[in-house]
């Protein structure tokens, strides 16, 4: 008798749970509170690409082949898609509503959590430079994926994307010409080295690591969407405790504090954008 | 997963459909205008829709369709629960996925079939979540997105519906779906809304 497709699916869901346990126990990375639909899709794609016949076979392989885990599966699970000035209206809102708040601080620390290959944090560096805050600025870019951090440190973007970034930059209220910020080299655009001087890149895992200094602003965009509600709550709590009073929290365009336990500890700074301010009265 | 009786003994399940997914591309505005306003106000299932659109599109489409419809039409929000009688549109530039607990997830994962949102992404995750209790509908479009997803729905015992290519503004997408899957119903655009109202209330699937 052949196993019904439903039984097969049910078994797959069990194998999938076990796979995440195996990754956690072997490598310490905890994906158990990530969006299941999303992780399952990535794993399924890996099976197809590499012609691996089952999730259990994949599990066996990644337990015995660390390179395969770090170079391939870990990469599959940490979606690193990013852009410069993604969602231009967000950058415009930062210029108009957040910069005046940041300008009241003698020194400004900004943390980009889940910065991927750096496009977002370089965009912020450009913006804050144009707004005259560069001299009292320190940006921190963190991610749990070392490979993307290495790329981020290089400060190189693909030349194919420059056209789109230029348009995003302008829509986001850019006051100069975007071409002031890069040098074209063959297939690459090398970002202005001065921007890099203000940025420190470091490994930080939002699931496992602790509070990250006292920040004036935290930017964490398009990371929480990959987490379940419980993990989202934990991470928002981490952000809450890593912000100074009155500090700013910026989330992705489709992320909000709406379903979060900490919603009442923040005020929405303006409608239409996911930009929040931590209350002044609390810790 | 837990809610299906499929795995009991003889491997058969019966029951009512619990959700609908719709995929549409070129010509989508008109197609959706012909379907969603017909959906009855007490429609007992959620409807998730992927319409390919410009990455910078705002929520015009949802607002417009909401005005025309008896059911609520809105842009899907991150981690909200899909509830009966509401139509959820994938936001521009995000994939829309369904979790096993029927909450909705968004992703900026790479494009699939050159599209984000992609129909396949919604259909495949929806099939895993609802299995035989899902109805998939492929409408007009000039590409092949959705064919694989519809196949997955069908494979898990769900119902596959495709718009008659003759009545589609662009035929490639419905034709590709028809070629990929043993489709249950090929319907005229004008019939689809009424058909969904009927089958969701009374129709029962019988999965072999
Ligand atoms: C889709 S990218 C977002 C990049 C950028 N913030 C943007 O919006 O363009 C998500 C990033 O989150 C990182 N990430 C995922 N889980 C993480 C975790 N637990 N700790 C730190 N970074 C994580 C991934 O490695 C990836 O680089």
Provide an overview of this structure:
The complex is a heterodimer of chains A (283) and B (208). Chain A is of the alpha/beta class and 283 residues long. Chain A has a seven-stranded mixed β-sheet with strand order 6-2-1-7-8-10-9. Chain A has helices spanning 5-27, 36-50, 55-64, 66-77, 88-102, 119-130, 146-154, 162-171, 193-196, 229-242; strands at 108-113, 137-143, 156-158, 182-185, 188-191, 199-203, 215-220, 243-251, 266-268, 275-278. With 208 residues, chain B is of the alpha/beta class. Chain B has a single domain, classed as Rossmann fold. In chain B, the strands form three sheets. In chain B, strands 4-5-3-2-8-9-10 form a seven-stranded parallel β-sheet, with helices on both faces. A two-stranded antiparallel ribbon of chain B has the order 1-11. The longest helix of chain B has 13 residues, at 189-201. Chain B is globular. The A-B interface holds A 4-7, 9-10, 13, 35-38, 40-42, 79, 81, 222, 224-226, 228-229, 232, 254-256, 258-259 and B 1, 4, 6-7, 11, 13, 77-80, 91, 94, 97-100, 105-110, 121, 124-125, 128-129, 131-132, 155-157, 207. S-adenosylmethionine binds next to loops of chain A. S-adenosylmethionine (SAM) is lined by residues 78-83, 86, 114-116, 120, 143-145, 148, 205-207, 221-223, 252 of chain A.
CATH architecture of the largest domain in chain A: 3-Layer(aba) Sandwich
Distance between the termini of chain B: 17 Å
Main sheet strand line-up of chain B:
4-5-3-2-8-9-10
What is the strand arrangement across the widest sheet of chain A? 6-2-1-7-8-10-9
The CATH homologous superfamily of chain B is termed Methylesterase CheB, C-terminal domain
| Order of helical and strand elements of chain A | HHHHHEHEHEHEEHEEHEEE
Structural class of chain A: alpha/beta
Given as residue ranges, the uncertain stretches of chain B (5+ residues, pLDDT < 50) are 1-12
Q: What percentage of the residues of chain B does DSSP assign to strands (E)?
A: 15-25%
- In the CATH hierarchy, what is the architecture of chain B at level 2? 3-Layer(aba) Sandwich
Number of domains of chain A: 2
User: Largest beta sheet of chain B, briefly?
Assistant: 7 strands, parallel
What overall form of chain A do the CA principal axes indicate? globular
Can you count the helices of chain A?
Answer: 10
* Proportion of helical residues of chain A: 40-55%
- For this structure, what is the CATH homologous superfamily of the largest domain in chain A? Vaccinia Virus protein VP39
Structural class of chain B: alpha/beta
Mean pLDDT of chain A: 94
